[in-house]
Description:
By secondary structure, the chain is an alpha+beta fold.
Amino acid sequence: MTTDNLIAKLYQSPKTILTTKDIALIWEERNTVNLNSKIKYYAKEGSLIRLTRGVFAKNKEYDVKELATSIYTPSYISFETVLREAGIIFQHHESIFVAGPYPARKKIDGHAITFKKLKDSVLYNARGVKNEKNYSIATPERAFLDTIYLSPKFYFDNLRSMNWELCFELAKIYDNKQLIKRVAAYQTNAQ
């Protein structure tokens, strides 16, 4: 396959962020040595932008949320990022908050990303997590539960829009009786 065709194949993908695995699937390249040398060539040429190990952008107009969920899998946007966008908290954070398999803070291409570790049984459960564009993001209720699961005394500015019935339903996936008590306490204080 000619080199122009390889890059054209990448640009046919709707993704703005590509991992090494994504590129291998798109190029149908099974040989990791060949794959890595091609990726290195295109990164050096400027056709791919290397953001961090194994994660590349097609150009500078990439989706930062897509980047955040491409670093570790599985992962989804949650916590303060979702809560702020839903108007549940008003504090602005520079960082994008992600539920993932490891706790970490990364600064990639000027973007701060904070990973918070959730236990596997919660992280792998897709209830309350929706796929948007090319990344996964928690619903406000799931982000609320993720937050109080890890930070029991977290302060919320506006819980009026919260669907409490859904919160109690989703709380079951955490298998934590204290969490259900916390949800009930937040519900009482919100009214």
